[in-house]
Amino acid sequence: MAISSNKEQKEQDSLIESTSTPGQPAQAVCNPDGSDIGSGGGGGTGGATSVVTSVNDSASSVTLLSSNAARLKYSVFNNSTEILYLKEGITASLTNFTVAIPPLAQYGFYESTSYTGRVDGIWANNSTGAALITEITA
User: Fold this and answer.
1) With left for phi above 0 and alpha for psi between -120 and 50, is residue 104 left, alpha or beta?
2) CA 138, CA 59: separation in Å to the nearest integer?
3) Best CA proximity match to 90, nearest among 124, 56, 65
4) How far is CA 21 from each of CA 25, 49, 106, 110, 134, rounded to the nearest angstrom?
5) Mean pLDDT score of the chain
6) Domains parsed from the chain with CATH numbers
7) pLDDT digits over 66-79, tens only?
């Protein structure tokens, strides 16, 4: 059993600290060397890649993610002043959606670890903002 130094423990602890502020988008946390923590993502499956995209808010249904059989998981943060109605499927509406994501809220975040189909979204009103989407693929 190896004993880590105090410096190593602090570095490890910094990996799990939250850098988010309530009401503000979460900030990325990286390894002490500046590399991406999620670069190996997908529950330990080596070779996984992360792609981050942004889709501007719209009062009409828009595609947030296309179908992707290689998708391991995805997450969406609603960086808008309006509610985002997200649908795991085609054509989201204010009455036909999977989850309503609050605007700019501490919990304005959604993550799916199994759905690989198309993801659409619509906002309550067209405003200023976007869906910030991270997709992890094999």
Assistant:
1) left
2) 33
3) 65
4) 7, 27, 8, 17, 20
5) 76
6) 52-138 (2.60.120.770)
7) 999 999 999 999 99
Largest CA distance in the chain: 57
CA distance 99 to 2: 45
Alpha carbons 91 and 134: distance in angstroms, whole number: 20
- The partner residues of 114 in beta bridges, in order of sequence, read none
Of 67, 70, 102, 106, which Cα lies nearest the Cα of 85?
Answer: 102
| Mean pLDDT, residues 20-41 taken together | 40
Q: What is the pTM of this model?
A: 0.67
Output the pLDDT for position 107. 72
DSSP structure string for the chain: -----HHHHHHHHHHH-----TTSPPPP-B-TTS-BGGGG-TTT-TT-EEEEEEEE--SS-EEEE---TTEEEEEEEEEESS-EEEEEBS---SSS-SEEEPTT-TT-EEEESS--S-EEEEESS--SEEEEEEEEE-
Strand order in the sheet with 129-137: 49-56, 129-137, 71-80, 109-112
